[in-house]
């Protein structure tokens, strides 16, 4: 039961919720039932069938409608007298500016991506409004409290980099199923159905240049007079047969590895199966509704007129997404899915990107990854498993969302009462640790060198004679610092700015600057230069000290730049530290690495663990609970389940259970100022 004081804090509060998904639905319900009277909700999405199992405010009839609006209507049905204001919009829209944020007493995030979280963090800092952050991954979850000047901000600790793989592992020497998935999704799918002009390392080149560049260029185009069946088989033979033969010709590669086996469609799908394939297709054309009724685990709510509702699996009579298909079945799915993309979804060709909610895309990627896995002697996987890997999915647990929503409200009430000494970051574990599933931890102090909440400059090592302003804008300002509308100044000289209201000659000047190397800009940027970078929308401003460096390691520093500063590395490791990658939000494919996309859906990052950092003079590990992002929680869970060494306080210390490696300062409680 809430005390009088709490009730009055609750009643007087104006609250902004960002995200009306898994956590957001629970949160809105808990806020309403706790007595909150004035709630604003921003969510940019519409409801999808796949949301219905846990986003309980939504029903089948709401599919396609705004989450924020439907959530409001659902809640008003049982608490009609409260005020809920929905915004079907992106929180990054300029309308949600500083003045907008200033009207609230507290902001509560139920988001699913780093980009939006950073954006809200910055506006909360600028508006001086407390932020309560949250995230869940399956059974794991956390709630953190961010109050300017009192606790860490969301960006005080760099987030772990998305997992990336060397390109050669993906293109030539896969050893795990995930490598085959990345190949199928980021290379093959992108090449066939995405932007044809993007750089793509799909083709293996032989050391003796047997594959002429002409062959490489033409192979993915449909040839004159070629029908879609022939085209599909040619692609199949090229990527699973010919390319493997080319790869095998690099004998060095296979000296200490198992050789892959080239697979040609004629060997897997002889004539009688081609026939069968054809008849299945007819079956598919005839039915108005794709015969999906029996597919217990596949989304049921679709109509055949909708091109996105065309499934290869259903049309081939494969029903259970948990079955592991044979090589023959995978090959048939591959050819069928390819055909369906070209015949039923031709309007989308050239602009498709892989989406885990696109069933046909998942079928294609599963089949392609499995055929490749077969070739390399890697165990095959079911569509269900492949979808999880390709979409980076850890299946959501509704109860975790409900627990986390409850904890958000508890912290929100403390924040509204300014009950600083009782703020807690709380971690929800998969397995009890000393009979506790919820671990409260005192929040950390702000990181004095955080670029988002302090004024400490960042350091950028760059070859100022080679890197262009464009590289700096794209790879540092946007990708690493997450700015949307950057403005770059050198002293009083404006080097770059974005905006709709720029005068033509200024816009032309900035466009010309983008293609200049840093040292040849009108106001040259060289070693020792201090740049000021601002994002007026985010109200963020930071200084970057430029350090000129000639050489970069192409493998480790593909951007040829190294950003550091807001988290100091321990001195002995300083030379090796590449802070920039810790905060990377890149999902792009570079010539050096293929990154498994994570930040669109950061609940599912594949982590590199053990990165050490120092915050406010205290050494700790990224894998410690102190700076747990959603993704870090898997480490905690491992520890708490006894898989790793863990350390706990005495039984009678009933407030805090600390996990750590025994050396970590995480086990020292920190008092708030
Ligand atoms: N920039 C943004 N502006 C507004 N809302 C956002 C923004 N980014 C994410 N969201 C919202 O945050 C919510 C996150 O909810 P959740 O993690 O449950 O994801 P989901 O998209 O509903 O489900 P899933 O990803 O599992 O299919 C989503 O409803 C999404 O629309
Ligand atoms: Zn900070």
Automatic annotation (TrEMBL):
<comment type="similarity">
    <text>Belongs to the ubiquitin-activating E1 family.</text>
</comment>
<feature type="binding site">
    <location>
        <position position="156"/>
    </location>
    <ligand>
        <name>Zn(2+)</name>
    </ligand>
</feature>
<feature type="binding site">
    <location>
        <position position="153"/>
    </location>
    <ligand>
        <name>Zn(2+)</name>
    </ligand>
</feature>
<feature type="binding site">
    <location>
        <position position="453"/>
    </location>
    <ligand>
        <name>Zn(2+)</name>
    </ligand>
</feature>
<dbReference type="GO" id="GO:0019948">
    <property type="term" value="F:SUMO activating enzyme activity"/>
</dbReference>
<feature type="region of interest" description="Disordered">
    <location>
        <begin position="611"/>
        <end position="649"/>
    </location>
</feature>
<dbReference type="InterPro" id="IPR030661">
    <property type="entry name" value="Uba2"/>
</dbReference>
<keyword id="KW-0833">Ubl conjugation pathway</keyword>
<dbReference type="Pfam" id="PF00899">
    <property type="entry name" value="ThiF"/>
</dbReference>
<dbReference type="InterPro" id="IPR042449">
    <property type="entry name" value="Ub-E1_IAD_1"/>
</dbReference>
<feature type="binding site">
    <location>
        <begin position="19"/>
        <end position="24"/>
    </location>
    <ligand>
        <name>ATP</name>
    </ligand>
</feature>
<protein>
    <recommendedName>
        <fullName>SUMO-activating enzyme subunit</fullName>
    </recommendedName>
</protein>
<dbReference type="GO" id="GO:0046872">
    <property type="term" value="F:metal ion binding"/>
</dbReference>
<comment type="subunit">
    <text>Heterodimer.</text>
</comment>
<keyword id="KW-0808">Transferase</keyword>
<feature type="binding site">
    <location>
        <position position="450"/>
    </location>
    <ligand>
        <name>Zn(2+)</name>
    </ligand>
</feature>
<dbReference type="GO" id="GO:0005737">
    <property type="term" value="C:cytoplasm"/>
</dbReference>
<dbReference type="InterPro" id="IPR019572">
    <property type="entry name" value="UBA_E1_SCCH"/>
</dbReference>
<dbReference type="Pfam" id="PF14732">
    <property type="entry name" value="UAE_UbL"/>
</dbReference>
<feature type="compositionally biased region" description="Polar residues">
    <location>
        <begin position="626"/>
        <end position="638"/>
    </location>
</feature>
<dbReference type="InterPro" id="IPR000594">
    <property type="entry name" value="ThiF_NAD_FAD-bd"/>
</dbReference>
<keyword id="KW-0067">ATP-binding</keyword>
<dbReference type="InterPro" id="IPR028077">
    <property type="entry name" value="UAE_UbL_dom"/>
</dbReference>
<dbReference type="GO" id="GO:0016925">
    <property type="term" value="P:protein sumoylation"/>
</dbReference>
<feature type="binding site">
    <location>
        <begin position="112"/>
        <end position="117"/>
    </location>
    <ligand>
        <name>ATP</name>
    </ligand>
</feature>
<keyword id="KW-0479">Metal-binding</keyword>
<dbReference type="GO" id="GO:0005524">
    <property type="term" value="F:ATP binding"/>
</dbReference>
<dbReference type="Pfam" id="PF10585">
    <property type="entry name" value="UBA_E1_SCCH"/>
</dbReference>
<feature type="binding site">
    <location>
        <begin position="51"/>
        <end position="54"/>
    </location>
    <ligand>
        <name>ATP</name>
    </ligand>
</feature>
<dbReference type="InterPro" id="IPR023318">
    <property type="entry name" value="Ub_act_enz_dom_a_sf"/>
</dbReference>
<feature type="domain" description="THIF-type NAD/FAD binding fold">
    <location>
        <begin position="3"/>
        <end position="450"/>
    </location>
</feature>
<dbReference type="InterPro" id="IPR045886">
    <property type="entry name" value="ThiF/MoeB/HesA"/>
</dbReference>
<keyword id="KW-0547">Nucleotide-binding</keyword>
<feature type="domain" description="Ubiquitin-activating enzyme SCCH">
    <location>
        <begin position="344"/>
        <end position="387"/>
    </location>
</feature>
<comment type="pathway">
    <text>Protein modification; protein sumoylation.</text>
</comment>
<feature type="domain" description="Ubiquitin/SUMO-activating enzyme ubiquitin-like">
    <location>
        <begin position="460"/>
        <end position="552"/>
    </location>
</feature>
<feature type="binding site">
    <location>
        <position position="67"/>
    </location>
    <ligand>
        <name>ATP</name>
    </ligand>
</feature>
<feature type="binding site">
    <location>
        <position position="43"/>
    </location>
    <ligand>
        <name>ATP</name>
    </ligand>
</feature>
<keyword id="KW-0539">Nucleus</keyword>
<dbReference type="InterPro" id="IPR035985">
    <property type="entry name" value="Ubiquitin-activating_enz"/>
</dbReference>
<dbReference type="GO" id="GO:0031510">
    <property type="term" value="C:SUMO activating enzyme complex"/>
</dbReference>
<keyword id="KW-0862">Zinc</keyword>
